[in-house]
């Protein structure tokens, strides 16, 4: 339920490179490094990878990996300060809060979180919640009457509107929750679910133009529930509560502020559409943040209909046809192969992306087993590589341990006790070599239960 806020923080137009609802995120297995220099590998609730997704879909369908990418972009400390401005002060009191904060890794109070969603509903203005409207004596004398506050602006109203638009987009929710989920109440409403891994807590937070409702479901003694999610537990309560309280109110829409612009973008890349783009959509942007780059993930090439390869000077005209290839960023190439995307020709223009080591995860500690043959105890060496990769050299502590010239450029290394730093060197077809960021890991001997090794 904190995901809308981390995306809102990333979309702050005062940032040097603010995100937008069309910012492309790669939803594949991604190891992160925590502030304690530990490897953290989040998974989505459905345990699936969804490849390239835009912020709108990532938020609407509540994907976990993109949300951690967002909090890594914003920074854990700045994000906690951002939430404090919304009145969620409990996160700042927990010194152990880390990248998992946006996936429920920090405790919050229902009242404070509902008030924070109220700030989204108010166009970015926070109002301190009040529990007592008035106190009147038996004789009718008014001893106290609450006077509404002006409120404090904590978020750009244009960003608040775009976040609201994403949270109320049933189409963006469809991949994660299906069509017409319990979050759809038959009138404009923004909503977000939340479920802890062990089913101890589940939430739905949401609002209409007039009303904000927060629901928490769990056991009073904090024992785990049995397969109860935000959608099945808190969802029906939220749905029926909002519908009942809104029954006598006229249907209204969220007020759109000035300073917004609408533009057509390519659905896959989030950039400006070209003739090759096979699907487009219209999107809202804070003025000045409309993408300026043209889509480069859809590229057109002439193919020989007989050989299936790129046409060349020997291909007769009747065997030539144009085909659109989807060229994915390096970290999504393996996902694309697994999901049926044809590998584009080597002549395709490379797409920018995060070139990184895929295996091993940083700061992992491997333990050698005493019951398995040492020759079978190996770790895979793999990297996300650009399309024009010709060779990958893997070096451990400076020494080359594997060289591979065949995609997907993977190798296996037999475990040996020690501290290691892995560097992958990627050589392109043009002969240029780039060394990726080092990945440290450790291999230790078998540790009997209850024993300790001084480190």
Which helices and strands appear, and what pairs or packs with what?
Blueprint: H1 3-10, E1 24-27, E2 32-33, E3 39-40, E4 51-54, H2 55-60, H3 64-74, H4 76-85, H5 110-121, E5 125-126, E6 134-136, E7 142-145, E8 152-153, H6 157-167, H7 170-177, E9 190-195, E10 202-207, E11 212-217, H8 230-246, E12 260-266, E13 280-286, E14 298-304, E15 320-326, H9 333-338, E16 357-359, E17 364-367, E18 378-383, E19 389-396, E20 399-404, E21 411-414, E22 418-428, E23 433-435, E24 439-444
Helix pairs in contact: 1-3
Gyration radius (Cα, Å) is 26 Å
**Overall body shape:** globular
Number of helices: 9
- Strand content bin: 25-35%
Record field, number of beta strands = 24
Question: Given the helix and strand composition, which structural class is it?
Answer: alpha+beta
Description:
With 455 residues, this protein is an alpha+beta fold. Helix content is 20%, strand content 26%. The protein is built from 9 helices and 24 strands. The protein has helices at 3-10, 55-60, 64-74, 76-85, 110-121, 157-167, 170-177, 230-246, 333-338; strands at residues 24-27, 32-33, 39-40, 51-54, 125-126, 134-136, 142-145, 152-153, 190-195, 202-207, 212-217, 260-266, 280-286, 298-304, 320-326, 357-359, 364-367, 378-383, 389-396, 399-404, 411-414, 418-428, 433-435, 439-444. The strands form 9 sheets. Strands 17, 19, 20, 22, 23 and 24 form a 6-stranded mixed beta sheet that branches. Strands 9-10-11 form a 3-stranded antiparallel beta sheet, with helices on both faces. The radius of gyration is 26 Å and the shape is globular.
């Amino acid at each position: 339920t904190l995901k809308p806020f981390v995306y809102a923080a990333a979309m702050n137009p005062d940032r040097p490179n603010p995100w937008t609802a069309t910012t492309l995120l790669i939803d594949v297995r991604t190891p992160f490094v925590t502030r304690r220099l530990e490897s953290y590998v989040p998974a989505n609730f459905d345990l699936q990878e969804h490849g390239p997704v835009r912020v709108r879909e990532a938020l609407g369908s509540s994907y976990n990996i993109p949300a951690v990418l967002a909090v890594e972009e914003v920074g854990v400390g700045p994000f906690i300060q951002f939430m404090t401005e919304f009145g969620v002060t409990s996160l700042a009191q927990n010194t152990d809060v880390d990248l998992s904060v946006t996936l429920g890794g920090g405790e919050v109070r229902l009242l404070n979180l509902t008030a924070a969603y109220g700030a989204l509903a108010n166009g970015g203005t926070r109002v301190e919640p009040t529990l007592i409207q008035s106190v009147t004596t038996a004789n009718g004398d008014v001893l106290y009457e609450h006077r509404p506050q002006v409120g404090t602006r904590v978020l750009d109203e244009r960003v608040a509107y775009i976040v609201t638009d994403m949270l109320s987009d049933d189409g963006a929710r469809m991949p994660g929750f299906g069509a017409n989920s319990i979050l759809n109440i038959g009138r404009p409403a923004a909503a977000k679910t939340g479920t802890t891994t062990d089913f101890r807590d589940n939430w739905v937070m949401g609002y209409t133009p007039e009303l904000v409702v927060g629901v928490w479901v769990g056991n009073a003694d904090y024992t785990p529930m049995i397969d109860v999610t935000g959608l099945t537990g808190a969802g029906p309560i939220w749905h029926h509560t909002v519908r009942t309280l809104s029954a006598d109110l006229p249907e209204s829409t969220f007020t759109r502020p000035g300073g917004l612009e609408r533009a057509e973008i390519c659905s896959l890349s989030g950039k400006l559409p070209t003739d090759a783009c096979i699907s487009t959509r219209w999107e809202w942007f804070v003025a000045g943040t409309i993408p300026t780059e043209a889509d480069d993930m859809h590229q057109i090439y002439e193919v020989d209909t007989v050989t299936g390869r790129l046409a060349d000077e020997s291909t007769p005209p009747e065997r030539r046809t144009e085909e659109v290839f989807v060229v994915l960023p390096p970290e999504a190439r393996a996902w694309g192969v697994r999901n049926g995307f044809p590998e584009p020709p080597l002549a395709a223009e490379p797409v920018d992306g995060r070139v990184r080591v895929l295996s091993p995860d940083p700061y992992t500690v491997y333990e050698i087993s005493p019951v398995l043959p040492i020759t079978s105890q190996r770790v895979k060496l793999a990297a996300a590589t650009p399309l024009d990769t010709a060779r990958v050299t893997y070096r451990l502590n400076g020494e080359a341990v594997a060289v591979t010239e065949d995609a997907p450029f993977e190798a296996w290394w037999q475990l040996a006790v020690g501290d290691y730093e892995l560097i992958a060197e990627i050589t392109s077809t043009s002969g240029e070599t780039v060394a990726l960021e080092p990945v440290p890991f450790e291999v230790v001997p078998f540790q009997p239960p209850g024993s300790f090794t001084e480190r």
